[in-house]
Amino acid sequence: MRKIDKYFEVMKITLSNKLVYFWDYLSNNLFFVFIMFVYWMLWKAIFASKGDVVGGFTLNSIMWYLVVTELVTLSRPNVHMQITKDVKDGSIAYLLNKPYDYILYNFSLFLGETGIKLMTNGLVGLLVGLVFVGPLNGANLLYLPFVLVSIVLGCMLNFFIYMTLALTAFWFEENQAFFWIYSKLVFTMGGMLIPIDLFPEWLQKIAVYMPFAYVTYVPARLAVHFDMGLFISNVSVQLCYVVTFYLLANVLYRKGARQLNVQGG
Amino acid sequence: MFKEAKGALRLMGHYMKFNLAAMMEYRMSFIIQTLGMVLNNSAFIFFWWILFNTVENIGGYGFEDVMRIWALTSTAFGLSNIFFGNTRFITQIIMTGELDTYLLQPKDPIINLICSKSNLSSWGDAVYGLILISLVEQFAVPKIALFLLLSMTGALLFTAVMITFHSLSFYAGNMEAFAGLMTEFMVTFSIYPEGIFGGALKWVLYTLVPVAFLVYLPRSIIMNFNLARLLLVLLAVTLWIMVAYVSFYRGLKRYESGNLIVNRV
Predict the structure, then answer these.
(1) Is some CB atom of chain A closer than 8 A to the CB atom of B188?
(2) CB contact under 8 A, B36 and A177
(3) What is the ipTM of this complex?
(4) Model's pTM, two decimal places?
(5) How many CB pairs under 8 A join A and B?
(6) What is the rounded CA–CA span in Å between residue A252 and residue A260?
(7) Closest Cα of chain A to B167: distance in Å?
(8) Sites in chain B below the pLDDT cut of 70
(9) What pLDDT does B178 receive?
(10) Quick check: A184 and B51 CB within 8 A?
(11) Nearest 5°: phi and psi at A136?
């Protein structure tokens, strides 16, 4: 139990550090408001020419869907940039002998920062949704805890994928392109900007099996069209992907650390 | 006037030469970043392809129209960051007192300042736009030539607007977040069809955030050449350059030097 305590402390310290900037985070959410405004304009134009329902979504549900996908992606801390830097500049050599597991340590940092970002972005998202399209049609507060579980799992999966990509710095001098490509895969195949339900059927079949959909599409879809059976099956897959990428990050870290060669001091 | 312009162009040429030489030092990194950015931008084709599968027309634009404004934005933004890559750091340079270094050198401070850095990944943006327009216009040379001209005016416009917003830091303290938000406005508004934005916002897009002269008018000029419209674009760009010059040099009179010692090698 004591082993977990130290990670809990790291998370608590990060959370309290970030809490100091609660109002800063809140005011920095102008981008969230702005991008939701642009989506609102775009989808209003689409619904105006296509009718009230497009791909099973109404203007109300598509906007709430986008609030959730943006919430997950905007709540990501930049821990992966620090990891890349640690590996590139050799600082990781000083972290190897610390009495903690490097992956879990970073995960604790992630939990602390994402906690506060989810709170502030959640507040802004709620406000944006209410102002633009009013309350979500058919919303039931009883589903909220289940949706939140899926949102948190989406954030965790996103973090472990970023971490896996960051650890490739052990082998690649320049790994920024991996982050761009991954973020665009979430953007497209993950249904971040456009629900997978609107894809051509053949592409839907591929997209629903890929991990990217479990980062953004699954939590957002559950938020607007909740179904308990779907929740259980989707969250099980989310959990499997989280564990898979956690293990993959561990393997990369251990392999990378074994062959690490730092010059100077 | 003519002599000054010639001097400014010569200085830009020298900076470009040095920046290119610096990039070639890390050739692989340059290639990866360029290709990564091309791939990164290509994800948006997917987004619009899915949307136009659902609806034929969005805000008066078809799929190819959106690709045209995307190409213009991408290349204009890319060229601005290749030739004037230091523009986005103006506020930071003013606030830290680093501006002293540029003032002490016997060249036009603003040209010296904005040209002294070039952004590596922006080559990807510039190349991407060119590839995209070549495909959309089926390699029609006159249209591609017009595109290049309008991308250059777009790059000048984009840079002038950014200089103006960053120059506000001379008057109102640290305006980095505001200037960053305005950049975000410019880029985001310029990649969506004009027709989805209505009312007062349309006026903003023709004045304060002059996206109309960056993409809307240039798109129509590329499709059907119109000299009057081209002259209008050139006039708008000239006006914005004048505004940028005046805001920077008037602001400079309020600049209070710091005691920072900077060594530019």
Answers:
(1) yes
(2) yes
(3) 0.86
(4) 0.87
(5) 81
(6) 12
(7) 21
(8) 1, 258-265
(9) 85
(10) no
(11) -65, 125
